[in-house]
């Protein structure tokens, strides 16, 4: 499972945001099921940042978000993400895809 969180960060907040985003990535990396993660900043629009993480499963990601240290460190940063879908399934060759339909969260 791939998670893509994008952020719009004003230039005057970027130094602190970069530290906070790295701390969020670090605490997520310590959780079971985390495969890898990367931070990035858009080359054309420097106010646009991204955190991508890969997880063994949706369950591993959801359990990671419920951990105390993640709630304390990562969730405040993740709450600043642009409001858009962020969870993606692996669609590489041979990957079995879920049915193509919108899902309700409630």
TrEMBL record:
Top-rank lineage group of the source organism: Bacteria
UniProtKB keywords: Monooxygenase, Oxidoreductase
One Pfam family of this chain: ABM
InterPro entries: ABM_dom (IPR007138), Dimeric_a/b-barrel (IPR011008)
Chain segments carrying region Disordered: 83-106
A molecular function GO annotation: monooxygenase activity
UniProt domain ABM: residue ranges: 1-90
Name of the molecule in the record: Antibiotic biosynthesis monooxygenase
Organism of this sequence: Nocardioides islandensis
